[in-house]
Input
Amino acid sequence: MVTPALVLFTIILNVLVSAKVKTFQEAQFGGLLVLPVVGILISQATGLFFLSPLILVMIGVLLLAANAVLLKVITKFNQRNALFESQIH
Output
């Protein structure tokens, strides 16, 4: 439940940021969102850190709620004409 919610969160956040910045270099920050998750997965696999299934479900629910909020923000602030004009200039 956590991985799909995190992937969706990353995609939505990248779309939001890409729509607001002017160059593609400014929009490349999606890797920063993945690093903490990779750290948790490595520590979980090595036994250094253990998350119970309940905590993982809670993290997944929080990510799904954040996805819903980001989708509302994207639909409210992004307009097709403004996005098109920003790509032309």
User: Anything to note?
Assistant: The chain has four helices and no strands.
